[in-house]
Specification:
Number of helices: 3
Number of domains: 1
Structural class: mainly alpha
Radius of gyration: 16 Å
Oligomer: single chain
Shape: flat
Number of strands: 0
Largest sheet: none
Distance between the termini: 24 Å
Order of helices and strands: HHH
């Protein structure tokens, strides 16, 4: 799953018309670092990584249930930043 997500992120970065080549290269480099770290973690701590990701998903679901207005606001800010290429 992480690899699929990383590929989608790379594709979005490559297709983004709002990024100059320097910023695009920087972001793709960060994705490469992230990929390396995820693979390293998967190799050494696969069960722990899966548990951590599941716990994170549950935490997010809990936050959304307890604070729907806050999560709506956060999502709106993230969407706005994404639209301007940040």
């Amino acid at each position: 799953m992480p690899e699929e997500s990383l590929k989608k992120i790379e594709e979005i970065i490559r297709k983004s018309g709002s990024l100059d080549s320097v910023k695009q290269k920087e972001l793709l480099g960060l994705v490469a670092v992230l990929r390396t770290e995820v693979k390293r973690l998967e190799a050494s701590h696969s069960a722990q990584l899966k548990e951590a990701l599941e716990g994170l998903a549950l935490s997010v679901e809990g936050l959304e249930a307890l604070h729907p207005k806050l999560t709506d606001a956060i999502n709106a800010v993230c969407s706005a930043l994404a639209r301007i290429g940040i």
